[in-house]
Design goal:
3 domains; three-stranded mixed β-sheet; disordered N terminus; 339 residues; two-stranded antiparallel sheet; 11 helices
């Protein structure tokens, strides 16, 4: 096992946007009180810790107030998602493309230029490898939930109220939930009857129904990014939020479509609560392992020390009585450490 290593910066540089005025209104930009593009970059000459303080227009009505302008100079240091500077990447590309160098020769050539650089086989590689079985189980869980939800409410959420002539459509963004039309009333139990039951018709009711149907459809197309963003877990949790919000609306005003949506989601999700809990427990363990693998800020830890912590964490999980055998198999940490 390779020890997760860290690049130690020789200099800290904070960049500011090259533009001084707003692109729309021409007013002077103000800087935000946070840093963006904050990263450590290894160049051919030294290691730098760089960041940029975004700029924005101070006027809320101006479109420039929603923009965050970064420093072009900072972004020219290294590509997004890479800690190697462009000069290092150009050197590697030149060796590979023009001199037909092998990967071993490229590694030797780069090491001669960067003798003090750290190998960046970091904790992210280990976490991705460790999360593969859990990610596969989550992907299967997502596919199963998607099919079940479509069986229960697929026909319902595909039908939307007809909009009036000339009325503009609404762009759906996954994760935006509609706000209540009125202030919520006192909390009621799931079995209590709605406090208000007028005729369910009109553009306001249709708008609320539409704002629930569209996000529900969008949630069935979520994509995951292991190891930490698992689409199956996220889909399950957010569909539960849609069901709870539908129940809150039904407590104030009965609407047949909302009732059908709530009952369908409850039927589709109730049978997989145990599986969802297992996946959530596995995701929590991955976060714990990520904390163990995080490089120390004071001094790097030796591989044996990190491996010991990982084995101790896995031994704790293995002896818990409420852990299912399938989840223990998914987090086969002993092979991961020994490998």
């Amino acid at each position: 096992m390779r020890t997760p290593k860290r690049l130690y910066a020789q200099e800290r540089i904070i960049y500011h946007p090259a533009l001084l005025t707003c692109l729309h209104g021409g007013d002077l930009l103000v800087t935000c009180n946070y840093l963006a593009w904050d990263k450590t970059v290894q160049t051919l000459e030294h290691v730098l810790s760089i960041a940029t303080r975004p700029g924005r227009c101070p006027h809320a009505a101006c479109p420039g107030s929603r923009m965050r302008l970064l420093s072009a100079q900072a972004q020219r240091m290294a590509p997004a998602g890479s800690t190697y500077g462009y000069d290092v990447l150009v050197r590697i590309g030149w060796l590979r493309q023009h001199q037909r160098a092998t990967y071993g020769e490229i590694h030797t050539a780069v090491a001669s230029v960067l003798p003090t650089s750290r190998h960046q086989f970091c904790q992210a590689h280990y976490l991705r490898n460790l999360a593969e079985p859990l990610a596969e189980a989550d992907a299967a869980f997502k596919v199963e939930r998607r099919q079940t939800v479509r069986q229960h409410v697929g026909d319902l959420i595909r039908r939307e109220p007809q909009t009036a002539a000339g009325q503009a459509g609404v762009l759906t963004v996954t994760g935006l939930w509609p706000s209540p039309l009125k202030e919520p009333l006192a909390a009621t139990s799931p079995t209590s009857k709605p406090t208000v039951a007028p005729a369910s018709s009109g553009p306001e009711v249709d708008a609320v129904v539409t704002q629930l149907f569209r996000p529900t459809r969008s949630l069935l197309t979520l994509k995951g990014r292991p190891p930490f963003r698992l689409a199956g877990i996220e889909t399950y949790e957010r569909l539960h939020s849609v069901a709870r919000f539908s129940l809150d609306l039904l407590a104030k005003r009965y609407e047949p479509r909302l009732a059908q949506l709530y009952q369908g989601l409850q039927s589709a999700l109730s049978s997989c609560a145990e599986t969802s809990q297992e996946l959530q427990q596995g995701a929590a363990w991955l976060h714990d392992i990520a904390y163990i693998l995080e490089p120390a800020t004071t001094q790097p830890m030796r591989a044996a020390h990190v491996a010991g912590q990982l084995r101790g964490s896995f031994d704790t999980v293995r002896w818990w009585s409420d852990v299912t055998p399938s989840l223990k198999t998914s987090l086969n940490l002993s092979e991961f450490v020994d490998g």
